[in-house]
């Protein structure tokens, strides 16, 4: 038993219009341009199917040609929506390419070559489906690698459209009724399922993007765009685990902007915020892209580097020099931009808290020693397990730091 084709296309038109309106509403409400593109494409595509099915036969061949061309524009808009969703610019020529190719084919081919016209039209839709899958497949983040249905569904749509037409061309090249039986009904059903399934996948993409944005917001400092304390702890935990497997050392730095409170008191908090953003920029450009940096307090920053202590000391000195050389002024009054830095390194697998504690001790000594300097913990910090074992045996060593002052290196022990 065959379903009434006109009824199926009417259902497809109504479903597309409803989904298009829903996508437009959420696109404007959530300020997501890609949803506006998808919604407009659904409305345009639904209108094209409805006009082609019910109005085209009454107005003649030219109107059917125009309504079909509108449908190809809708296909181009679906592809463009996939581009916009991933931050790429629309290609307007591509939006109208399918419609232009269709009109050119209609005028170039005689009316008795309807099977070839149909094949070209189906090929245009399949071509846009492949382009849409390609755009969605360009996103290579881990979260997207799990979203293979977003790539598979457009490909299946193009395959479902082209298969009956290609079979008709191969098996029944002279049978004009081949495309007017069960294949037309099957395509009408597939069109409805594709529209609904695609909207479901669209909302999955948007939901995942929103969750990711909230996660980034929760782990980043809004002023400097660096990791906040929570984000820094999570990121460094992953680095420690990775470097421990490779048995490579890690190093932690703690930065404290000198006399930051006086900057706020003299020039106001807006200037203080600018100094914080300036220092964040200095860190970002002075360290490697593989190094992790974060703002862990008011004027206190931290960094973790997958390297030994000597390399970290050179990097810290580079940060200190670059920040000291900024030379900013407010109302012709110079603003001192210096920073004190404590550095501590440890073997593979050393816990973050242990490294931070050792670096904080070195930072304290740097500030007591005159500020605007880099100092490192002399002894490698013990891991938590080693520290407990040493404390239980009474062999816990006194922490020591190396103090660099006027070119002279001195060693001092911190009283327990």
Name some characteristics of this structure.
single chain, 416 residues, alpha+beta, Rhopdopsin 7-helix transmembrane proteins, Alpha-Beta Plaits, seven-stranded mixed beta sheet, two-stranded antiparallel ribbon, 12% strand, elongated, disordered C terminus
What this model shows, in words?
It is a single chain. The chain has 14 helices and nine strands. By secondary structure, it is of the alpha+beta class. It folds into two domains: 5-219, Rhopdopsin 7-helix transmembrane proteins (Up-down Bundle), CATH 1.20.1070; 229-413, Alpha-Beta Plaits. The strands form two sheets. The protein has a seven-stranded mixed sheet, sandwiched between helices. The chain has a two-stranded antiparallel ribbon with strand order 4-5. A hairpin with a 2-residue loop joins β4 and β5 (333-335). The radius of gyration is 32 Å and the shape is elongated. The protein starts with a helix and ends with a strand.
Radius of gyration: 32 Å
The ordered H/E elements are HHHHHHHHHEHHEEHEEEHEHEE
Q: Give the % helix.
A: 55-70%
Shape: elongated
By DSSP, the count of extended strands is: 9
Distance between the termini: 91 Å
Structural class: alpha+beta
Which CATH top level class of the largest domain fits? Mainly Alpha
Q: Segments where pLDDT lies below 50 for 5+ residues?
A: 140-145, 167-174, 384-416
CATH architecture identity of the largest domain: Up-down Bundle
Work out the helix count. Answer: 14
What is the CATH T-level topology of the largest domain? Rhopdopsin 7-helix transmembrane proteins
The main sheet orders its strands as: 2-3-1-6-7-8-9
């Amino acid at each position: 038993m065959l379903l009434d084709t006109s009824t199926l296309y009417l259902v497809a038109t109504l479903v597309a219009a409803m989904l298009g309106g829903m996508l437009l509403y959420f696109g404007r409400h959530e300020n997501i341009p890609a949803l506006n593109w998808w919604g407009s494409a659904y409305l345009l595509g639904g209108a094209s199917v409805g006009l082609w099915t019910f109005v085209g036969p009454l107005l003649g061949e030219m109107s059917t040609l125009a309504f079909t061309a509108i449908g190809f524009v809708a296909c181009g808009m679906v592809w463009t929506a996939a581009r916009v969703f991933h931050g790429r610019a629309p290609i307007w020529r591509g939006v109208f390419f399918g419609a232009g190719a269709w009109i050119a084919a209609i005028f170039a081919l005689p009316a008795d070559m309807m099977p070839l016209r149909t094949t070209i039209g189906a090929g245009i839709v399949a071509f846009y489906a492949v382009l849409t899958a390609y755009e969605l497949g360009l996103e290579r983040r881990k979260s997207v690698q799990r979203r293979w249905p977003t790539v598979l569904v457009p490909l299946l749509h193009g395959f479902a459209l082209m298969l009956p037409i290609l079979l008709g061309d191969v098996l029944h090249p002279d049978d004009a009724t081949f495309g007017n039986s069960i294949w037309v009904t099957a395509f009408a059903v597939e069109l409805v399922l594709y529209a609904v399934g695609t909207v479901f996948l669209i909302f999955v993409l948007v939901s995942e993007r929103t969750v990711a944005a909230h996660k980034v917001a929760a782990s980043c400092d809004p002023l400097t765009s660096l990791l906040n304390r929570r984000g820094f702890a999570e990121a460094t935990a992953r680095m420690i685990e990775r470097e421990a497997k490779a048995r490579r050392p890690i190093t932690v730095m703690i930065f404290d902007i000198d006399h930051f409170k006086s900057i706020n008191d003299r020039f106001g908090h807006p200037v203080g915020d600018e100094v914080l953003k300036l220092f964040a920029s200095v860190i970002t450009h002075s360290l490697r892209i593989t190094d992790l940096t974060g703002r862990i307090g008011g004027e206190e920053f931290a960094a973790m580097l997958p390297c030994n202590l000597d390399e970290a000391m050179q990097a810290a000195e580079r940060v200190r020099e670059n920040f000291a050389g900024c030379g900013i002024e407010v109302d012709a009054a110079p603003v001192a931009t210096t920073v004190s830095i404590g550095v501590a390194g440890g073997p593979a697998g050393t816990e973050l808290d242990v490294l931070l504690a050792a670096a904080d001790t070195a930072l304290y000594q740097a500030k007591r020693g005159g500020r605007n300097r880099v100092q490192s913990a002399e002894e490698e910090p013990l891991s938590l397990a080693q520290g407990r074992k040493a404390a239980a045996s009474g062999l816990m060593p006194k922490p020591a730091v190396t103090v660099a002052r006027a070119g002279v290196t001195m060693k001092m022990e911190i009283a327990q």
